[in-house]
Amino acid sequence: MPSKLSHLFTNFYPTVMNNKIISVKDASLNLNAIVQLISQNDGVIALPTDTIYGLACSVFNSEAIERIRRIKGRSETKPMAICLDQVSHISHWCDTKNIPTGLLSDLLPGPVTVLLPRFSDRLQDPLSTHLLNPSDKRVGIRIPDSGFIRKLISALNEQTRFSSIVGNNVEHSSGCDKHDSTSIGGGHPLVLTSANLSGQPSAIQIEV
């Protein structure tokens, strides 16, 4: 599927940063600015994945999650996936104890969403304090075959780790909700959903 869509991708993605459309190459050279944007109140970006265009925000920013729902006209009962940069981080966000060894590494990175059970113990579930799929017992996991997205998530994780080290919680320095240090070990996921109005066809190109 990605190869069939590749001729439609323009290698650009729009952000809410002054309504600019900038190239993935330029964005890769300015990851800190993109990280800062995502870390601010309601920070939402649109970007190409290995399948279609998506809307993304920090998993720790409840206001941004709600903003994505408003943009799409999406019901709170419709779940959204989280996007990670490494397969090794998946077990932090959902229960993988019954998954055969090596299966997730065979599937990811790639153009698939893997549905896995959330932790039954809310104290163990790092998603329980956020607005992401509060009534759903499963969570969709994405690790796109996109170097840019994985680098962006890695940069978010580094910022979160640095904020924790200096004792400056993201809650105080940005619009993100407070999260404990155990979340850092599992990375800093993006909430990721298709960039379209709910129920409408998915976006596979940019119109300017």
Could you explain the architecture of this structure?
- InterPro entries: DHBP_synth_RibB-like_a/b_dom, Sua5-like_dom, TC-AMP_synthase_SUA5.
- It is found in: Cytoplasm.
- Its EC number is 2.7.7.87.
- The protein is of the alpha+beta class.
- The protein is 30% helix and 16% strand.
- A hairpin with a 6-residue loop joins strand 1 (12-14) and strand 2 (21-23).
- Residues 1-17, 168-174 and 178-182 have low confidence and may be disordered.
- The radius of gyration is 16 Å and the shape is globular.
- The chain contains eight helices and eight strands, in the order H-E-E-H-H-E-E-H-E-H-H-E-E-H-H-E.
- The chain has helices at 2-5, 24-29, 31-39, 62-72, 90-93, 103-107, 147-165, 170-173; strands spanning 12-14, 21-23, 45-48, 53-58, 81-83, 114-117, 138-142, 190-194.
| Average pLDDT for all residues | 80
Q: How many helical elements?
A: 8
> In sequence order, what are the helices and strands, one letter per element?
HEEHHEEHEHHEEHHE
Indicate the percent of residues in helices.
Answer: 25-40%
Relevant terms:
double-stranded RNA binding, 208 residues, Sua5-like_dom, globular, cytoplasm, six-stranded mixed beta sheet, TC-AMP_synthase_SUA5, alpha+beta, 8 strands, two-stranded antiparallel ribbon
